[in-house]
Structure formats: structure tokens, C-alpha cells
């Protein structure tokens, strides 16, 4: 909408810029005699002014048109009156394309055609100082339109190129942060009356959508944060739209399991909506439901349940029904499962099942979470029956909702794994991956599913089959979540375990070193999984016969478990036993003239340095 308003403003400012028509000279040449005959006069220049008037009337008709048919009719008239390289025609293409894009039945190919035509006319214009900031904004808007149409056509790389170029054009025109913050009166200082920030916001938001679809979630989050900063500078404090922007950013962080970053943005949204809309608004209910999901991710289940119940209370008060309320009730059941209240969770789910439509996605979710509660109660037969019902529903939805079905199959697979049905779990995971690979917007999920398949194959002893899935998962997850995401570290750790099973300890040591380096950053050196990875690295060096390196990392494991206190006493004893075992091997490996003192106790900085060296190799 902001882009359409901006285009309309540009049209009003620029469609009527005509070259002045010179008045005909009335001075007669005194050297010429008066003609003897009266000749027909030449067509007067007034006809040119008349043509301009016709063009102006056509432009006004186009600007005044509101329906699609009227716009097309006025545009066709305008095409016949303006030169093909006239910038006014480029602006008309832009306005018509934006109108079609806003229509639910728009053909993205037609929108892209208009956007490219507009871009071509703007690019054919002057590239010197004659080009104005307004020209740059118009071109950026046309590039945004081309990027949006390319996104709808799943041409993500083309969309990324168009939108990145649009952002480069707009960045120099954005006001500084001080100017955007406004003067003492609180009004933003926008030069020359035209604010490019709404255009930049639209470009950034579409960039986030494209990068999310391409699986580049970390880059998409950076664009979404920039969107929020732009909205903070545009909108007045306390704006409802700003609260929604905070919530959207929180949801994006939660989607990549970054719940710590998601929490403050969700709290900002909640505080803003509560102060402006009151404690019983629907917006606040949505905020609280998301806050419940975030607290669940942070394993603060009591707080999660409290927020969920408050959200449901507001929804019921305002008569909110349908999927929103049912999903909130399903979330509540899931939280109760995490709290060990399995019977309560089943009771909630049975009530939801009565309201859910037959063969609906909500009904499938009900049976999935009911199976989860039953699996925790070790009711294997009932668990399998619930999963079979859910799979029957999901199978019917594969064509209409493939992304949701693929995600549900992952959950079902994990429950089959809980009841030791590994073949069924692997089969469903492979089915999910096959579906995701055919959904361009779901690339961010492919790495997680491939990693899960690899882990299940490794767990069931199918090591050679597991390795390609794990290697593929590592590359996909690095592209999606960044090279230092903890998930990438777990994949490398599993790859190391696979290589150890294949008697390739050197390759295993490289993978364990990479995993340890990532976990040191993402989880911290004292996290139990980081310590276990360090233990695996020591074992790999021990198998290789690199006893000095093995002892260094084993000593690191001992120090880490010792810092955990009495709760890890058994693990500490095992780590010390392994250290002594490696030490005995080293003594036996040495010549009689060597001393045990030739193997020094490891220093902290040496352990870190060696880990990084192996990772670099």
C-alpha cells in the first residue's frame, strides 16, 4: 500500500511535465513583397499544444482510474500518445503493475512484464547529474515490483538480484538515524517532502521473504531487524503496527529456535499492545500465545502455561473461534505434556477433537499430540493407533498443504522413534524430505530433516547410508542457519561418530574438532554436549595413536566435569579412568629411555589452539 501511495504521488508530481510550446512569430520579413495570391496557410503550431492536451487528458484519466478494466483502458490510450521511452509511461507501467500485484487473481508473469518495461525505460534515461533522486526512487520501486513478481514465480535468485539493487539505490537516500528520529517536536526531518523509508521498508521485507525461502534464515533475520528499525523511525510511539512488527520479528527468531532473542521482542510487543489497547485485546492474546511458545522453547513450562491460559481467556471473551483458538488449546496440551501432566493433556485434546473438522489439519495435530502423551505413558498400542489416524488424515492433505504435512511427518516420525519403530520413523522422514525438496519456500527445513535421517540411520547401524545424509545436512544447515549454529555442531558430531564406526579416526577427529569449535561458541565450553564432544575428540586421537593430543583433550574433559560438581561424579571418574588408560598406552609406546614426564599435563590455551588447528585442517 505504501508503494502504491508513493507511485501515485510521483505520478501527480511528474506526469504533467510538458515542454513549453513556443508561440508562433508574427514578425514579417520586410524584404519580401506581398504575395499576389492567397496561399493555404501551414498547420499552426497550436495543433502540437492540442496533442499535448490530449495526452494530459489521457494521463488524468489513467490517474483517476480505480478498477482493473478502467486502468487497462486508460493505459492502452496512454501508450498510443506517449513515446515508448517516456518516463511518464514507465510510471504508468509501475502503477498498473502495483495494482495487479495487489489483486488476488493477478498473473505474476504479467506483473513482471510491466515491471521490466518500467525498469527498461528508467534505465534508458540520463545517468548523469540530470537524474534526480525521484528517478532513483521510481527505479527502486520498479525493481521491488520485479522482485515481488519473481518471488511469486519462485525465481528466487532473480528476485534477490532485483531487490538487492533496489536497496542499493535507496540506501544513500535514507535519512540519518538522528534525522529520522526527529527534531525536538518529534517530527521526522524528511528532505524535500518525499519519504523513501516506506519504500525501503517494503524492499527489506520482501528481501527477508526471499532469503527465508532460499533457506538463508540468518540473513533474513538481519533484514527483518532493519524493517523494525525503519518502522520505529516512521511510526509514532505506541503504534499498533509497530507492536505487530515486534511480534513478527520474535516469531522469526523462534522459527530458528533462537528463543533468547525472540523473548525481548515478544515482550516489547506485549507491553506496547497492553499500554495502547488494554489488557483484553485480541492483539495481546496473540502476543501471549507466542510468549507461551517461547517459554516452552526455553523450558520454562509453568510460565508458558500461564501465558497460554491468559491468551485463551481473551480469545474466548471476544468470541475468537476456529484454528486460532484450537491451536492455542493444542499448545496448552503440549505444555502439559512437558510438565508431565499426561492425563490432563489427553483430556484437553479429546475436547479439541470434538470441535475439529473431520480430516482437518487441526484434527491430525490432536492425534499427534495425543500419541505423544500416550507414548510418555508407555501405552504403545494406543500411541500407534493415534499415529495411524493422524497419518491417514495427513496423506489426504499432501497435495493441498504439502509444507504443513511434511512438517507433521517429522513430528510423527519422532513419536514412532519413541516406541522403537525405527523403520517407520525413517520412512516418514524420507517422505518428508522428498516433499520438502519440491517446495521452493521450504529449503530451510531440508537440512534439519536430512540430519534427522542420518542420525536415525546411524542409530540403527546403517552407517554407510547415514554418511551422505549427514554430509548433505551439514552443508544445507550452514547455508540456512550460519556456520556457528549449534545444529551444525551436532551434525558434525554425528558425522564424527559415523567415521569412527567406519574405522576412519582421522576424519572423525576433524569432524569432532569442528563440532567442538561450534559448540564452544553456541553452547559454551561447560555445556554437557560440548564436553561429550571433547571426549569424542580425545577418543579419536587415542584410536589414531596420537596419545599426546588425546591426553590434552582428556584432561580438558576432566576439568570440565570437575567444574560441574557432585552431580557428574560418575562421569568424572570415567574421564579420569580413560586418562590413565591413555597414559599407560603412551608409556608402553615410548622407548625405555623416555620418561612419563615427556607427556606434560595439558594447558587450557593449548587445548583451544589444537582444536582450532584441527578444525582448519
Q: How many distinct helices?
A: 28
Find the count of extended strands (DSSP E, 2+ residues): 0
Structural class: mainly alpha
Largest sheet: none
Rg over CA atoms: 33 Å
Head-to-tail CA distance between termini: 52 Å
Summarize the amount of helix as a percent range.
over 70%
Order of helices and strands: HHHHHHHHHHHHHHHHHHHHHHHHHHHH
Summarize model confidence as the mean pLDDT. 84
- Which regions are unreliable across 5 or more consecutive residues at pLDDT < 50? 1-41, 43-47, 594-617
Q: Please tell me what the overall shape is.
A: globular
Q: How much strand content do the residues show?
A: under 5%
Describe this structure in a few short sentences.
Helix content is 74%, strand content 0%. The protein is mainly alpha-helical.
Can you characterise this structure?
- It is built from 28 helices and no strands.
- Mean pLDDT is 84; it is low at 1-41, 43-47 and 594-617.
- It has helices at 2-14, 46-64, 68-81, 87-102, 108-123, 133-152, 156-170, 177-181, 197-213, 217-234, 240-255, 259-277, 282-297, 301-317, 323-338, 342-355, 361-376, 380-396, 402-418, 422-436, 443-459, 463-481, 486-501, 505-522, 528-544, 547-563, 569-589, 604-616.
- Helix 21 packs antiparallel against helix 22 (463-481) and helix 24 (505-522) packs antiparallel against helix 25.
- With 617 residues, it is mainly alpha-helical.
- The protein is globular.
- Helix content is 74%, strand content 0%.
Amino acid at each position: 500500500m505504501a508503494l502504491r501511495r508513493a507511485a501515485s504521488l510521483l505520478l501527480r508530481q511528474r506526469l504533467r511535465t510538458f515542454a513549453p510550446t513556443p508561440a508562433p512569430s508574427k514578425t514579417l520579413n520586410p524584404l519580401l513583397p506581398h504575395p499576389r495570391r492567397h496561399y493555404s496557410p501551414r498547420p499552426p503550431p497550436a495543433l502540437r499544444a492540442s496533442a499535448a492536451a490530449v495526452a494530459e487528458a489521457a494521463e488524468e484519466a489513467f490517474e483517476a482510474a480505480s478498477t482493473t478494466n478502467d486502468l487497462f483502458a486508460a493505459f492502452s490510450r496512454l501508450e498510443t500518445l506517449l513515446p515508448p521511452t517516456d518516463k511518464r509511461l514507465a510510471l504508468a507501467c509501475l502503477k498498473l503493475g502495483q495494482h495487479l500485484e495487489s489483486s488476488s487473481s493477478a498473473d505474476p508473469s504479467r506483473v513482471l512484464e510491466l515491471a521490466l518495461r518500467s525498469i527498461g525505460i528508467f534505465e534508458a534515461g540520463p545517468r548523469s547529474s540530470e537524474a534526480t533522486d525521484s528517478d532513483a526512487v521510481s527505479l527502486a520501486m520498479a525493481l521491488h515490483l520485479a522482485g515481488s513478481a519473481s518471488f511469486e514465480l519462485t525465481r528466487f535468485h532473480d528476485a534477490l538480484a532485483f531487490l538487492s539493487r533496489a536497496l542499493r539505490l535507496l540506501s544513500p537516500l535514507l535519512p540519518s538515524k538522528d534525522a529520522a528520529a526527529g527534531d525536538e517536536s518529534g517530527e521526522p526531518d524528511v528532505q524535500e517532502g518525499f519519504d523513501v523509508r516506506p519504500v525501503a521498508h517494503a524492499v527489506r521485507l520482501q528481501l527477508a521473504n526471499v532469503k527465508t525461502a532460499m533457506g538463508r534464515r540468518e540473513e533474513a533475520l538481519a533484514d527483518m531487524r532493519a524493517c523494525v528499525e525503519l518502522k520505529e523511525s516512521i511510526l509514532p510511539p505506541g503504534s499498533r503496527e509497530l507492536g505487530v512488527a515486534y511480534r513478527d520479528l520474535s516469531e522469526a527468531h523462534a522459527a530458528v529456535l533462537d528463543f533468547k532473542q525472540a523473548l525481548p521482542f515478544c515482550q516489547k510487543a506485549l507491553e506496547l499492545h497492553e499500554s495502547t489497547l488494554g489488557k483484553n485485546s485480541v492483539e495481546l492474546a496473540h502476543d501471549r500465545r507466542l510468549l507461551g511458545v517461547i517459554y516452552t522453547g526455553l523450558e520454562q513450562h509453568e510460565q508458558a502455561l500461564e501465558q497460554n491460559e491468559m491468551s485463551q481467556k481473551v480469545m474466548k471473551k471476544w468470541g475468537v473461534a476456529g484454528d486460532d483458538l484450537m491451536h492455542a488449546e493444542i499448545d496448552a496440551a503440549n505444555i502439559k505434556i512437558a510438565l508431565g501432566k499426561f492425563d490432563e493433556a489427553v483430556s484437553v485434546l479429546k475436547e479439541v477433537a470434538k470441535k475439529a473438522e473431520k480430516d482437518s489439519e487441526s484434527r491430525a495435530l490432536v492425534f499427534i499430540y495425543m500419541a505423544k502423551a500416550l507414548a510418555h505413558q508407555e501405552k504403545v498400542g494406543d500411541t500407534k493407533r493415534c499415529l495411524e489416524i493422524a497419518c491417514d488424515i495427513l496423506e489426504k492433505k499432501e497435495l493441498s498443504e504439502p509444507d504443513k504435512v511434511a512438517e507433521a511427518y517429522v513430528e510423527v516420525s519422532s513419536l514412532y522413534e519413541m516406541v522403537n519403530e525405527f523403520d517407520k520413523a525413517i520412512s516418514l522422514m524420507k517422505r518428508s524430505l522428498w516433499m520438502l525438496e519440491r517446495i521452493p519456500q521450504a529449503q530451510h527445513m531440508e537440512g534439519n530433516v536430512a540430519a534427522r535421517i542420518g542420525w536415525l540411520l546411524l542409530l540403527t547401524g546403517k552407517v554407510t547410508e547415514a554418511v551422505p545424509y549427514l554430509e548433505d545436512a551439514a552443508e544445507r544447515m550452514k547455508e540456512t542457519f550460519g556456520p556457528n549454529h549449534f545444529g551444525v555442531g551436532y551434525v558434525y558430531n554425528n558425522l564424527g561418530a559415523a567415521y569412527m564406526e567406519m574405522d576412519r579416526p582421522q576424519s572423525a577427529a576433524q569432524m569432532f574438532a569442528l563440532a567442538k569449535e561450534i559448540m564452544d561458541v553456541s553452547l559454551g565450553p561447560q555445556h554437557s554436549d560440548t564436553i561429550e564432544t571433547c571426549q569424542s575428540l580425545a577418543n579419536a586421537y587415542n584410536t589414531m595413536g596420537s596419545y599426546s593430543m588425546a591426553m590434552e583433550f582428556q584432561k580438558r574433559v576432566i576439568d570440565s566435569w570437575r567444574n560441574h560438581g557432585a552431580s557428574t561424579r560418575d562421569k568424572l571418574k570415567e574421564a579420569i579412568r580413560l586418562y590413565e588408560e591413555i597414559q599407560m598406552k603412551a608409556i608402553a609406546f615410548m622407548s625405555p629411555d623416555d620418561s612419563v614426564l615427556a607427556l606434560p599435563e595439558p594447558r587450557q590455551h593449548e587445548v583451544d589452539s589444537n582444536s582450532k588447528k584441527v578444525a582448519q585442517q
